[in-house]
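Continuing from the previous page of notes. For each protein in this section, the sequence appears first, followed by its structure tokens. Read the first protein now.
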Amino acid sequence: MTTTTPRGNRRRAWGLFAVVGVLVIGIDLAVKEWTTSVIAHGEPVKVLGGLIYVIYARNSGAAFSMFSDLTWVFPIIATAVIGWLLVMLRTTVSVPWAIALGLVFGGAAGNLGDRIFRAPKPFHGHVVDMFSFLDDHAGHFPVFNIADSALTVGVALAILLEFTGRRRDGLRVTGKDTAPDA
């Protein structure tokens, strides 16, 4: 089966990737700056009746503060992920895939910015985290930020797209055949 991909679909997907990525980076940066200037010097903020608390935390490690003594590795990993996403984007015309890749890109770039520009020193920076579930001291669940949330949602969406047979090139795999994605 031969299929053609209209350039308009590719431009739309790439544009959406860029918009989602920039929005995630901007929102993440704004919330981190607010957290470091307001919450770091005050009390945690209770949201949704205590379901979520906005607190100030710094994380030198990865998820769940793992590998906190290997801070220098995370900028390398984030840069590799961003490069891989840009390579994947070249063949992407699917809008859902563009959204998923944009979320992962924005999340990786948001945390990479912390690693490069925040204390204690360049490429060893600690990520600013602020959201804590059910506890104002992160007692029930690891503290996270907007970038972490975008990464998680983007990866979950990508997994869902894979499991439902939706490909980045706009085709949908159904059994042994491929059909244009709706």
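Done with the first. The second protein uses the same format. Note its length before scrolling.
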Amino acid sequence: MDRRSLIVMAGPALLGACGFQLRQPPEFGFGSVYLAVPGNSPLVAELRRNLQSARNLRVLDAGEPPQSADVVLELGPERRLKTVVARSSGGQIREFQLRTIISFNLRRPNGATVIPPTELSQHRDISFNESAVLSKEAEENLLYRDMQADLVQQLMRRLAAVKT
């Protein structure tokens, strides 16, 4: 066997030995979840889509009684904040911090708390330039969407950590 073949075959063997594996879909400790959420924001739609794609998990609609679910996920409204972080010597804004905050709790239909009220937040810094206002607005929207996806993934990991 030549040296090149040995190096090519050693790569996957080393990756397998270190415990590396691709991310798997989450396994939940409950079979059905009722979403008690206000409205139908993009965050709620993404959360619903992620929950529905999970194996062995049934997501109950608003038309079904919450008592038929194993757990009830209550999600508060999404809050978006934009604060000034830096100004130039002339007082012009140079940098903003964007924040997205959600709160949630998980309980049994009988009211027993599984996950107490919890807040998740994400923040991103964005530079600002008066001559590129439209492009900065588009960048801001992309950053908010990115934070929303990160929050949904954090929430999914928290839910997957619950074992019955």
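What the second structure shows: The radius of gyration is 22 Å. The mean pLDDT is 87. We return to this in next week's lecture.
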